Amino acid sequence: MRTEDSYLAVGNEETLFAAAWQQKLPVLLKGPTGVGKTRFVEHMAQRLGRPLITVPCHEDLTAADLVGRYLLKGNDTVWMDGPLTEAVKRGAICYLDEIVEARADTIVVLHPLMDHRRELHIDRLGRTETAAAGFMLVLSYNPGYQTLAKDLKASTRQRMVAIDFNFPPPSVETAVLTDIQGIDASTAARLVQFAQAVRRTEHPGMTESVSTRALISAGLLNKAGIPLREAMVATAAAALSDDPAIVAGLIELIDTYLA
Amino acid sequence: MPTRPQADGLALHPLAWLAGAVAGRPLRVAPLPSGQASYTDGATIHLDASLPHPQQRCVVMAHSLLLAAGSLAPAITRHLRLRPTVSQRYFGLELQRAAVLLADRLPPGFAAQAGLVAVSPSQSARESYALALAGRQVDCPAWLGQIRPSRVQPDAAMALAPGQARRAAHEDSSEDDQALSPDDLNLLEKFRTPLSSGLGFADTLLRLLDFRRGSGPAAKTNTDSEDDGAAALAQTPADHSDSHLPQRSVSARARANTARLAAPGTRALHYPEWDESRQAYRPNHVRVSEIIPLPEEDTGTAPSPAVALPGLGAALARIGVRYQHVRGRNKGEDLDLDALIDVSIQRRSGHSMHENIYIATEASRRDLSVLLLLDISRSTADRGDDGLTVLQRHGSIALQLTDTFERLGDHVASYGFHSWGRERVRFVRLKAFTERATVSADRIAALTPSGLTRLGAAIRHGTALLGQNQHHTHRLMLMLTDGFAYDDGYEGRYARADTARALAEATAAGIACVCVNIGTDQDDATLRQLYGEAAYLRSANTTGIVGPLRQLMHSALYRASLARMRRQVTEP
User: Fold this and answer.
1) Alpha helix locations (H) across B117-244?
2) How far is B421 from B178, CA to CA, in rounded Å?
């Protein structure tokens, strides 16, 4: 069994990422949740020998959360660097996960960092930081996610090198379950077949599909002694939708393929 | 094991997913009364509901397999008509071929349950047909069902694209494929001219014998057909006893429709009407009732064609949301100087205090209630250049709006409306506030344009419906009509004035009103007279309407909130 940072490549994503880093270009990882984007970034950070600073983005994330703010310490106000500033100074890889969740006025802060200038403006301090060597900006983006409200603006998207992350092909997905997670081969094959079946049905009421992560969870529960069908119901059916009709349909699929 | 929900005709059948998973495209599943053999028409798998559940699962997978493997290509199924033995042999052979071809899609137990082996004697559909003709067969259990060649829709071979599936002419008197002997049918075929639109001798004969020609283009776009029992009802005086129904033969479906319309409505309410000439209201002038569409026997209705509305989700999410500055937060963009000074003073005097010294920009929560009113009068049956009727176009828009609003977390309801005079204004429930959006797809697909349009009454009832949702600040009423206000004793200036008045009443009550006309014939001047001050959108087609629609909703909501504030000032 390999170590925690192992990553099984599907296509050319590793070489593409390494080349982008070398040429100081920002990278956008596009794909549904649970397919290995975060695992990939961790793996690449280790390979390239850079520290990794991860920021999970959400609706309340402000520019100050990224860049930094003044805090009260005793009788003084003291400036604290945010994670983005820290990455810029240390030459780390800054990974902004689910960037569409953040507001547009927050994302604006990133623009000067994404072109050849590689600068971060800190208005509060009246200073501009230039990115240290080794700095890289990585964003991840789930095009089909629930919050329809937000999409990356074209101007943001165009500045980046994009890597598409889809559900891995069955052979890779099975290998992820067996080699990395230590799940036995026959269970892994059944789980992957089930996931393929779900992904073939595209239903308008469902915004997510069964991800590799859900399969891993089910497999691990099964290793701990839960029957496979119950494990999959727990990780997939209830988690994917609240609509009882959809859940019933999913349970039929689980019963058919994993009973 | 969790209990399975009862599958009624309108809910999505739990096995529909399995069907889609094996076929690789969305399919529907509908139950058949017991004893009838299962079959598929290319869009729906009609399933014998009396089978034990594991067998039902197997049947669904079997028929999905056939569709995925292209076994039901019309080019071949055409030759299977009136040949039940060949058809059954072909069924078995194709099932065997498909199961081998698509083995990776099937769970391990399927082959054994269906009595199949690992090797297929045939490598293509055509080869299976040839083998079937020659007498070769594969034995499989009878409960797996059959192929019904006359029911196969023309596009069963390809992926189901919206707008291409057509309604199958499905009558309660089931069409019996084996009734006519081959000789008789050959004789009739000779009389059938390919260019006739149903007037040929053969068609007359067939109609006399109660055989339909199938899903041809001439079938079922005529809204005065017998199936619309409403036409029968409209001629009767305004009382609700069955004895007044005209005694002519109508199909069972029309009878059901009539009974439904004649039944006392679930809630009958009376509304006034504005008489422009007297500048006064006519109290209790109009009677409105609601119908809940009954779950019907599966009528083989295909999903409605969809109209493309790109960017709808993003657009709708931005209405009704404001960012505002909030002081005294413990994190934010800027320092709140007043709070900061307070805290510093407190600290210097030895007290420790909170750190709420920031100003944050926060989004105000969405607080929106939406009511969609869909005009389903006879005039919405007009077909436009894109091949869709006004009702189909508006219905698709309504469906997508309902879906999107629900996903954004808003309260949304949608109703169809039509009328036959002032005593019979009907609201057909497509989705109540408490129901989920998934129920409306089937109900919209089953709508048949009929009746007339008493717009004023519809708006007033809509206002009442929205008024019940008091806990929402923002209320939006969106009407999709063809812009013709016309009913018994309701036309011309009188109708337009009453409609405009009803809209004004709604706006004064704090409801944002937006009227949408897509692909209808009305001109701007008439519409402006009709809708008065309310926002309306008129467009020949649906390209690029998302942006203007959003703007209209936004401005209508803004105006409504002004009206609300004004009311709060005047009513302390």
Assistant:
1) 125-133, 182-191, 201-208, 229-234
2) 47
Determine whether the interchain pair B105/A197 forms a contact, defined as Cβ–Cβ distance below 8 Å: yes
CB contact under 8 A, B14 and A248: yes
Cβ atoms of B300 and B162 closer than 8 Å = no
Q: What chain B residue is nearest to A256 in terms of C-alpha separation?
A: B107
DSSP state of A131: P
Nearest CA in chain A to B344: A75
In B391-528, the DSSP E strands lie at 411-419, 425-431, 474-480, 511-518
- The Cα-based distances of B517 to B395, B408, B520, B549 in angstroms read 12, 24, 6, 11
B516 touches chain A (CB under 8 A): no
3-state secondary structure of B158: coil
Q: Which residue has the tokens 């999410």?
A: B317
pLDDT in the model for residue A193: 92
B2 chain-A contacts, CB cut-off 8 A: 251
Contact B5 A245 (CB under 8 A): yes
Which amino acid is located at B466 in the chain? L
H or E element that contains B281: strand B280-291
Could you read off the pLDDT of B141-177 as tens digits, one per residue? Answer: 888 998 888 888 776 544 333 333 333 333 222 333 3
The region of weakest confidence among A16-20, B151-155, B454-458 is B151-155
A247/chain B closest Cα distance in angstroms: 8
ipTM of the complex: 0.73
Query: At B98, phi and psi to the nearest 5?
Result: -65, -40
Q: How far is CA B253 from CA B247, B264, B296, B297, in A?
A: 15, 19, 9, 10
- The residue behind tokens 């009862």 is B6
Which tokens in the block code for residue A115?
């072109």
The better pLDDT of the pair B533, A184 is held by A184
Instruction: Mark yes or no for CB contact B331/A64 under 8 Å.
Output: yes
Tokens of A206: 């469902």
Segment B177-183 long-range contacts (CB within 8 Å, at least 24 positions apart): B177/B81, B177/B82, B177/B84, B177/B148, B177/B149, B177/B150, B178/B82, B178/B84, B180/B82, B180/B211, B182/B82
A244-258 and B53-68 are packed helices; what angle lies between their axes, rounded to 10 degrees?
A: 90
d(CA B25, CA B36): 25
Inter-chain contact A256–B61, Cβ cutoff 8 Å? yes
pLDDT for residue B309 is more than 60: yes
- pTM for this entry: 0.58
Nearest to B18 among A64, A196, A252 (CB): A252
B313 touching chain A per CB within 8 A: yes
DSSP classification of residue B473: S
Q: Phi/psi at B287 (nearest 5 deg)?
A: -115, 125
For B323, the 3-state DSSP assignment is: strand
- Asked if the C-beta of B193 comes within 8 angstroms of chain A's C-beta atoms, the answer is no
